[in-house]
């Protein structure tokens, strides 16, 4: 069999593994296997490419693989689940800058050929890689900074910020067009890359922390699109296919996230969600004299006579690493014959599927996890809802205040339950920066404290009852 036939067969097998892997990632029970299948597909693609391409030094490639593997293993072991969104943002950024450098190297090798004849498919792909890859890199690291706290989570707005983005974007497009007309001028490519990096900063810095799940999903899509464009530069089919899969799945997920927030992608990119947080009145005035505090012992008494309980996980639960304590509470209640389910809002946490991953990590049965649309109509029949660290996704202002920054966002209707217990460190606002009227509702009790410790105290109180 000829080398080209073996290569194409390898790429076909790798592509099939990518598709099956993505399909299996849709369910926690098969996600681990899907991840392994995707990794196997990438391994096959890399090995096949190494045999096909002209390699100057396998030694340096081996060194790179070794260094990258060590870093990857350390990250996989050390990274906390609460920091997973930051890691995803960084990996998206690295994918973007890799596309920029690969396309730049390809341009350098092709310039002598362009002296006589220009391959416009190649040069257009090179320019596109520079623009999308640059935006992905800088935008991802701004997202990382916001999530990690290096940069304010608030939407950074200034007079004329939209005009600045438009001008920088038009500059990038103009440089790209000129780069296609004069492909032998390598300096234009690197200037274009620099402008694209600047554009990525201007696009993400005005976006507030409440929109980070959408931004991460969108940047993930960008990294796939950049990789696919680089595949056209290198004439590499598997890179085109894998990049297209990532790009398409990222866009679909972004649309799902926007729908869950009742917002358009344009509004996310240009609306500055969270920008009005500083204009809201002081939370202390809003809650003053209206909050009913409770204790773990009182909550245990409520749970002891309950027949149905719904647990709503949020980012506060993730920060407290309370998922295993929540599992212990679930098992204790279930052993007593209480029906326990988990209500999952699509944008709870800082990354799409964040809560699903945390609960799956704690071995909570997947059939106990109910999506918002499925569970909302059942809350009125629930005895006790335990909200562990969630805020904006349960905030009634989304329905009652058309001027609120979360106006129109679908929420979990936990207020319809007979009793709501909110576990939270304080009355501080969520990512959107607005107070939550749920906390002062007649049927709401506030259990102040760390999500893990409070849950453990409830378990201890239940065992003594």
Automatic annotation (TrEMBL):
EC annotation from Swiss-Prot or TrEMBL: 7.1.1.1
Tagged with keyword Cell membrane: yes
SUPFAM superfamilies: DHS-like NAD/FAD-binding domain (SSF52467)
Segments crossing the lipid bilayer: 6-22, 34-51, 57-77, 89-111, 123-143, 163-181, 239-258
The NADP transhydrogenase beta-like domain, residue ranges: 8-460
Gene3D superfamilies per the UniProt record, alphabetical: TPP-binding domain
Name by which UniProt lists this protein: NAD(P) transhydrogenase subunit beta
Gene name per UniProt: pntB
Location within or outside the cell: Cell inner membrane
Reaction(s) the record says it catalyses: NAD(+) + NADPH + H(+)(in) = NADH + NADP(+) + H(+)(out)
Main localization, broad class: membrane
UniProt family annotation: Belongs to the PNT beta subunit family.
Key words of the record: Cell inner membrane, Cell membrane, Membrane, NAD, NADP, Translocase, Transmembrane, Transmembrane helix
Function: The transhydrogenation between NADH and NADP is coupled to respiration and ATP hydrolysis and functions as a proton pump across the membrane.
Membrane topology of this protein: Multi-pass membrane protein
Entry GO terms, CC: plasma membrane
